[in-house]
Amino acid sequence: MKKPLTILFVVVVICSLLTALLLLKLSSSPSDAPALPTPTSTVEPPNEELQQAINHGITYVNQVEHPIGLLMLNVMYRQFGIAEFKDSLQRYDQLYASSTDPLIRVWRRIADYNTSAVQPEDFNYVTDQLNRLTIPALYSDRKSLPDDYVSQLTEAMELGCFYASQPTDDGSINDGAYLLTHVLLATIWLENNHCSLQLPEDFTSTLYQMNAALIGDGSRVDDIQLEVAAFLFQAGQGNLVNSVFVENVIAAQFTDGGWSAKQNSPSNTGWHPSVLAVMVLLYVAYPAASYPPMLAPAPGSA
């Protein structure tokens, strides 16, 4: 129990300091941005071990039938050319052609810039707190953002940091901290859509550090840490991912090729942590200063 408590203490301290700094920035006149601390460099595991983990993981996640899972396979196909995922959008359409869930139409934009299935009334069903953060960013190239969207992102970041500081019985991070990862995802999608939202000074750098704090010393490999790592790499901040964490991701893979959402309850592997883990390992195997966008770009665009 000592190690989880230590990690929790570190998260509390980092979140408190970063939140205080951000609020100070908002209440004072602009000044030169302070230099970010030198991040930990990601050390690649042995190539053979890394490639075996990726191959095994690809086989596992290629069986995914969850809509978001299939769309994430499409992201990996577009970013890394994974042949097994080439038909992921077609599978999405085949599996959900008769679905009455409006979000099936809304989410399709991730993989198809020109998606025509979405209807204006579909957005009335975007009521989940996390979706309300990300869906406006997903459609920011064609729909006006909510008037209070900046406030929504700022408040969600602060609330997510608060939840991250709350202890759980098993030492894992409170699920409310997913607000932090989804604010990060929203900023990635805003950039993908070339949306120049005026965020507070140092907002993104603070957001990166708050997310990286969730990984801590890299000893835990739960779903939320995998999500943090995948999104940080996508945002071009992979150097903030603890190198020990990458090694532990490989070690946490189960014999079926998948990963469990909770390190302390590894009875079942699942699509969500497994898709995220494969993404992380692909980013490590194919390092780059930037990657193709998560969102399918307009046809003919660079």
Proportion in β-strands: under 5%
Q: How large is the count of helical segments?
A: 12
Largest beta-sheet details = 2 strands, antiparallel
Category by helix and strand content: mainly alpha
- The beta-strand count equals 2
**Rg, Å, rounded:** 19 Å
SSE sequence, one letter per element: HHHHHHHHHHHEEH
Share of helical residues: 40-55%
Supply the number of structural domains: 1
Q: What is the mean predicted local confidence, pLDDT?
A: 87
Q: What is the global morphology?
A: globular
Strand order across the biggest sheet?
Answer: 1-2
How far the N terminus sits from the C terminus, by CA atoms, comes to 50 Å
> Which runs of at least 5 residues are low in confidence (pLDDT < 50)?
1-10, 19-46
Please describe the structure with a list of short key phrases separated by commas or semicolons.
302 residues, mainly alpha, two-stranded antiparallel sheet, 12 helices, globular, 2 strands, disordered N terminus
Describe this structure in words.
The protein has 302 residues and is mainly alpha-helical. The protein has one domain (2-26, 45-285). The protein is built from 12 helices and 2 strands, in the order H-H-H-H-H-H-H-H-H-H-H-E-E-H. Strand 1 and strand 2 form a beta hairpin. The protein is globular and about 45 Å long. Residues 1-10 and 19-46 have low confidence and may be disordered.
